[in-house]
Design goal:
This protein is α/β, with parallel strands linked by helices. It is about 50% helix and about 20% strand. Helix 5 (about 130-140) packs across helix 8 and helix 6 packs across helix 7 (about 155-170). The relative contact order is 0.08. InterPro entries: Sig_transdc_resp-reg_C-effctor, Tscrpt_reg_LuxR_C.
Length: about 190
């Protein structure tokens, strides 16, 4: 890699010879399906993409998230300091979005929850509310019999829920399932 510019914590460079890069900065006048197709052709950077956008966002938020878009800067509000901040945030696992996109993104998440997940009995974690209730009680130290009484399900149902989660998540036992749920932020 040949260095182009250096700033505190950031070295901008051209990727040569297929070297892995941490963050890719892309300029686009309008973000749309063509932009998403372009991003899909890149090898996904370890941290993600930073987009500098001219005037419009006309792309699907879920697709952008899948492609690892982690920051957006409007060209009209662009500054060197904001770019460096966005790159550092993305490289450390964070994100940087203008307030206007944050509201749209939250609206999108709400629509997905209401129109797609809830009618199927799912939550954003991919688990049902019943599974989450069982996991929450198990994390509080309840045994199978206590969980079944608390939720008015048979002990067999509670055991089946745990078995289904172990199989679905490829985990070893009930403790492993509860530990996974806590680490994943499900409970």
């Amino acid at each position: 890699m040949s260095s182009i510019e250096k700033a505190p914590q950031v070295a901008l460079a051209r990727s040569e010879g297929g070297a892995q890069v941490d963050v890719v900065v892309v300029f686009a006048d309008t973000v749309n399906t063509t932009t998403m197709d372009l991003l899909g052709k890149f090898e996904k950077p370890a941290g993600g993409f930073v987009l500098i956008v001219g005037n419009k966002w006309n792309a699907d938020y879920s697709e952008a998230a899948d492609l690892r878009v982690r920051a957006v800067l409007w060209r009209s509000d662009f500054s060197h300091a904001k770019l460096i901040n966005a790159i550092c945030l993305v490289n450390s696992g964070g994100a940087y979005f203008p307030a206007s996109l944050q509201g749209d993104l939250l609206d999108h998440v709400q629509r997905v929850q209401k129109e797609i997940l809830a009618p199927r009995g799912l939550t954003s974690s991919g688990l049902t509310s019943r599974e989450i209730d069982v996991l929450r009680l198990a994390a509080e130290g309840y045994g199978i019999a206590e969980i079944s009484r608390e939720l008015s399900y048979s002990e067999r149902t509670i055991k089946n829920i745990f078995y289904g989660l172990m199989k679905q998540l490829n985990l070893k036992n009930r403790t492993h399932v509860v530990s996974y749920a806590i680490r994943a932020g499900v409970i």
